[in-house]
Amino acid sequence: MGKLYGTHWILTLLLAVPLTGAVACLVGPERRARWTALATTLVALALSLPLFWTFSTGTAEFQNAASFPWIERWGISYAVGLDGISLLMLLLTTVLMPLVVAGSFSQIGRRERAFYASLLILMMGMLGVFVSLDLFLFYMFWEVMLIPMYMIIGIWGGKRRIYSAVKFFLFTAAGSLLMLVAIVALVHLHQQQFGEASFAYADLLRLSIPPRLQLWLFGAFGLAFAIKVPLFPLHTWLPDAHVEAPTAGSVILAGILLKMGVYGFLRFAIPLFPSAAMNRGVVAVILLLGLIGIVYAAWVAAVQPDAKKLIAYTSVAHLGFVMLGVFALTPQSLEGAILQMVNHGISTGALFLLIGMIYERRHTRLIADFGGIARVMPFFAMALTVVALSSIGLPGTNGFVGEFLILVGTFQRYPVVAVLATTGVIFAAAYMLPMVQRIILNPLTDDENRELSDLNGRERAVLAPLLGLILLIGVYPQPFLDRISPSVNSLIEYVEARALPMEAEQEPEIPAVAFELTQREGNHTLEEERGEIGR
Amino acid sequence: MILDFSSNTDYLVALLPEGLLALAAFGILLADVFQRGDRPEPSGAWTAYAAIAGTLIAAAANLWLLLEVDAGPGLVAVDGFRLAANFILLSGTLLALLFAIDYQRRESMHVGEFYALLLLATVGMMVLVAAQDLLLIFLGLELMSIAVYILTGFNRTDPRSAEAGLKYFLVGAFASAFLLYGIALLYGVTGNTNIADVVDRVVTGSAEGEVMLLAGVLLLLIGFAYKVAAVPFHMWAPDAYEGAPTSVTGYMAVGVKTAAFVALLRVFSVQLAPAADFWTGIVWWLAMLTMIVPNLVALVQNNVKRMLAYSSVAHAGYLLVGVAAGTAFGRAAALFYLAVYTLMTLGAFAILSLVAGKGDRHMNLADFRGLGWRRPALGFGLLIFLLSLAGFPPTGGFVAKLYILRAAIDAGEVTLAVTLVLASLLSYYYYLRVVWKMYFEEGADHDVASSNGSFRLGAALCAAGVLLLGLLPGPVLRGFEWAGSDIVGGAAATTAIEAPRPDAPANPSAGGPAP
Predict the structure, then answer these.
(1) Do A177 and B398 touch (CB under 8 A)?
(2) Interval B321-331: pLDDT, tens
(3) Domain tally for chain A?
């Protein structure tokens, strides 16, 4: 046990489990596919949960890390590892997946084998993105995810599913292709500066990149991630994809896929190109787009007649907050941003599940078709209220902790931005509360709504963990913050130490980072110096 | 064994794979005639098996050349570059034969001549990739082309096939004329057809006849551009590809392209490297156009075969980026790309030929509706090939594109690299369109024939190869990297590369610390 959780094997196992499950789904009988998938995701969850406790807090080093040569010729390795940020993302994935699978039981009635296999391959891709420490490996997982998602939207989606699936695919692929060119450019620089090609994250961090070039490369990486987040003008694929996807697809999209964009900024774009990420112009543009996203999405959400579309737009607003927190680059704002990523995954995931549950009963998602269903569905009404309040950020729920930290952190550096962003919290109440009111309160007039049955045991079991987490993180976020903060602090230190003004001429100093390679080199130099002194 | 080309037997040894393959072709042709006589019945299955055996023997001879034989400069090269290309060509031929057995059976075209011609075309391709002399290049090119013209029009009862054959022949003859005229000009200036000598003249830069020299090089380039179907010399390709029997389309898409590209790389990026200033600009524009135009046109194709034809033209554009890079790394990248391209293109055309059914009637997008559910294995295979053509991980197409991108960036061709990925983005749309027909829609009404063993073997080999080259490309990368640099260059090319070197260690004491 201790052995497993101290090495990379737990991560490798976590990647292998969904893949095995996917194959088992495909070859097994149609009726058993759902149970195979549920069992696979539960096994993954059970395997991953102990990581939360075996993870040693107080260090920013990558844990459970390992690196094996894969395509030696090109310096490509199978390199994985966990830090505080990827730990939470990994757990978010493993927690949401069993709920997604169980939540799909009644909605997916055809081609179940392919559906659950797609979900599991998607899961492997997501876990892979969060643990990869090699850019080739990362890019592979990043792209591999697209295909099952394309299938999930395209095969089991709503009326405009094909349009939405293709739009989702092309938008995401457009960004990642330019990122590929930037990755190749990084490898080329490594070849120039160190004499051999390498795709390893630790190696590429050692590069000294001229600030001008950093801007271009940051642009290429940033575009890929900004589309995924999605940042304001690039968000148009999101409402389509969310609305047309089956519930499982929407939950995964909102809960996990969007987080990959932010994760990409935190793990790759910012540390690899610190000068660009600290550049005033770049920060101003991203903060501005984040702000526009918060306000614009809130206004658009307020007038949506379709509940699912409304929730889709709230994602744009919430992720705008997260981006503010990331680019304000203060310890609180970053901690808040990462916690808010988890929170958004939980609350928006729960919202999509809830809407999916009443859609299955009434086959409509129009808010106007409901009203007063609290009387016939009390459990549903309770759940929707709690989740909506968490989404708004009411104190006592998880949303409050995240948003508060982001705003406090941002205020230290950009007070005006923080003040403007705070209006977004008010707008959030302005679109979320009326929706709740129109669905569960108001008079119960429609006859069809009188017939609705309350959530059954399976549905309650799916929602219960999410409701529990909402309250747990709301009142006791400390264990989560403990795991994030070393990584956040080391990221900020690293970036601030390495950022150069745009026209700087001098070579940057390489600060003492936790990576073994650098350390070894450092020792070597010291020894040499000692030798010289001795002579 | 060391060959110095002082006697004719040395040439026989150096051309052993080609010779054996040609023997197999003539053997099939003769034996088939004697066995069938004038009865109008299909040839025995043995003709196909004999062709496969011939290909395998040629591959074994090629391996022997690789391991045991070393050669000095001569009319034919015995270097890693040629032998690696031979392996690609022979595996392409082998897979094409496996698919052809099934196709010819379904179309009742099982005749010995087909297999003999296929082998002869391959002999031409192999001569082309080995040629160190302009006349030999022409010889190989013609041997290949004439056999492929006939194969294109092989289904003579089908007007489309006949039209395609004629069109290909006319345009091909035109291209040959360009090439021959270019050779004639070069010969006129230098009095020699050996590329090395021609290059000497280019390097020493004797002003006399310089215009003719450049015109010769330009015409040579145009001739090659026709053969690899680079825009704007590509117009014949979609028509010829569409009209040819589908078993031939796959073969000509991979074989002709591989052979012509390898020869292009040998002549331009190695031997004419000293004149790079002159031709790089032209190749740069050819690459740009060839990446953009066919990808745009393919977007609106409803006929899958025609769409794949345009896509194959677009792949020539990606390959031209490797040529424009002009480095050993670029050559290795192109070789790797050609290997992956061979597997994925043959696989895609093979599945298309099965779906198209008798007389190649069902080739529209609508005919692919629901294929993924009705024939899961077939659909999944096509999915893999399409993803690889699009350049998606974890397939070989991704590694190949990454290779070309690295070559381009290493050579400083950032614009080409960015264009390449944007062109790939366009291609995503039309490749995915087939995927969405296969999985998102229901209800094509025609039955897809079942495949036989040789088809399944071929498709499984293609799919396994594509995935293997995507996940564990290490050994193959190493092989091609060696092959890209193990290439017999003209004497001038070597001096041009070596020239700056003597300066470097000129004063070794200056850099070192004084004692």
Answers:
(1) no
(2) 999 988 888 99
(3) 1
Is the distance from CB of B219 to CB of B182 less than 8 angstroms? yes
Q: Is residue B137 part of a domain?
A: yes
Q: For residue B8, what pLDDT is reported? A: 84
pLDDT digits (tens, 9 = 90+) for B490-503: 433 443 333 333 33
Tokens 């901690």 sit at which residue?
Answer: A335
Residues of A in contact with B425 (CB under 8 A): 170, 173-174, 177
Report yes or no on B104 lying in a domain.
yes
Which residues 124-143 of chain A have a CB within 8 Å of chain B?
139-140, 143
How many domains does chain B contain in total? 1
Instruction: Select the residue of B428, B432, B439 nearest A155 (Cβ to Cβ).
Output: B439
The number of beta carbons lying within 10 Å of the beta carbon of residue B2 is 10
Q: Which amino acid is at A125?
A: G
pTM of the model: 0.90
Q: What is the DSSP string of A304-358?
A: -SBHHHHHHHHHHHHHHHHHHHHHH--HHHHHHHHHHHHHHHHHHHHHHHHHHHH
Residue B239, in any domain of the structure: yes
What pLDDT sits at residue B97? 93
What distance in Å separates residue A174's CA from the closest CA in chain B? 6
Q: Which amino acid is at A89?
A: M
User: Would you tell me which residues 176-195 of chain A have a C-beta closer than 8 angstroms to some C-beta of chain B?
Assistant: 177-178, 180-181, 184-185, 187-188, 191
Q: What are phi and psi of B205, to 5 degrees?
A: 65, 35
Nearest to A462 by CA among A314, A315, A351, A366: A351
Segment 436-495 of chain B within 8 Å of chain A by CB? 436, 439-441, 472-474, 477-478, 481
Query: Which residue of chain A comes nearest to B421, CA vs CA?
Result: A177
Residue B515 falls inside a structural domain: no
The yes-or-no verdict on residue A208 having pLDDT over 70 is yes
Model pLDDT, residue A57: 83
d(CA B252, CA B225): 15
- Residue A377 belongs to what domain range? 327-476
In a domain, A200, yes or no: no
pLDDT at A24 over 60: yes
- Residues of the domain holding B193: 10-488
Query: For chains A and B, what is the number of CB pairs under 8 angstroms?
Result: 77
Characterise A442 by phi-psi region: left (phi > 0), alpha (psi -120 to 50), beta (else): left
Q: Is A233 a domain residue? A: no
Task: Find, in chain B, the residue whose alpha carbon is nearest to that of A220.
Answer: B418
- Asked if the structure places residue A434 within a domain, the reply is yes
Mention every residue, 6+ apart, whose C-beta is less than 8 A from residue B495.
B203
